[in-house]
Amino acid sequence: MIGVFGGSGFYEFLDDSRTAPVATSYGEPAATPVVGSVGGIEVAFIPRHGRNHQFPPHLVPYRANVSAMKLLGVDRIVASSAAGSIKAEWAPGHFAVPRQLVDRTWGRQSTFFDGPDVRHAAFADPYNAEMRSIAVAGMRSTGATVHDGGTVVVIQGPRFSTRAESASFASAGWELLNMTQMPEAALAAEAGICYVNVSVITDYDVGIGDAAPVTHDEVLRRFAESLRTLQQGIAAMIPPLQAAELSCPEP
Predict the structure, then answer these.
(1) The domain spanning residue 232 has which CATH number?
(2) 134 with 237: CB under 8 angstroms?
């Protein structure tokens, strides 16, 4: 089964949807999973931040969300998210399918491997290469501007970066800022689930020239403006994602 993490606007994305309650070892997911179909292909959906966006990024129940997907039989996840740009050419309204990430979060429950069975998971390539190619093609099929590759730095949130922090990230050569890709991506790897991110670029971060301070309302507005295109792109990805023979992490 294919899983999708995204905002609550994705409920309308699924046909013949039904709730699919699951009990995880890590508590309740952000919302009861919903299973439906896209073009006749079964898809599971969980709104990452909860049905009413009640979980800030540092308190999202990431372990429960990923565990719920695993229990539903999901073995490949498309994770959509808002992102800020720290590269002038990557403009608001564009999309990106990153290749790498840098983790700048702390204090989150970030692993399934709490012992006594100690494991050290490989995580050199957070995003599945074949899923990335499918995601880029799917998003480009909508006519959107899509950046293939780049690095997203995941900040703790819920506050946005200072100008000095943002400029530092940009000087390192990174392209995007986000608050939710970690530990979500790492947990998917630990669960043996192939994973890809589609970033909706909602703003220029404050490290870019004389960019104005980012506001939450601006991010929500830009994401809402891009939602239909995002849904169309993910719908285009579903058939090739189902057909693909993927090499996923060993759980």
Answers:
(1) 3.40.50.1580
(2) yes
Contact between 5 and 44 (Cβ < 8 Å): no
What is the number of domains present in the chain? 1
pTM of the complete model: 0.95
Whether residue 201 is contained in a domain is answered as yes
State the angle between helix axes of 62-71 and 181-190 in degrees (0 to 180), rounded to the nearest 10: 40
Q: Provide the residue-wise pLDDT of the chain in tens; the chain has 251 residues.
A: 999 999 877 778 888 899 999 999 999 999 999 999 998 999 999 999 999 999 999 999 999 999 999 999 999 999 999 999 999 999 999 999 999 999 999 999 999 999 888 889 889 999 999 999 999 999 999 999 999 999 999 999 999 999 999 999 999 999 999 999 999 999 999 999 999 999 999 999 998 877 789 898 999 899 999 999 999 999 999 999 999 999 887 76
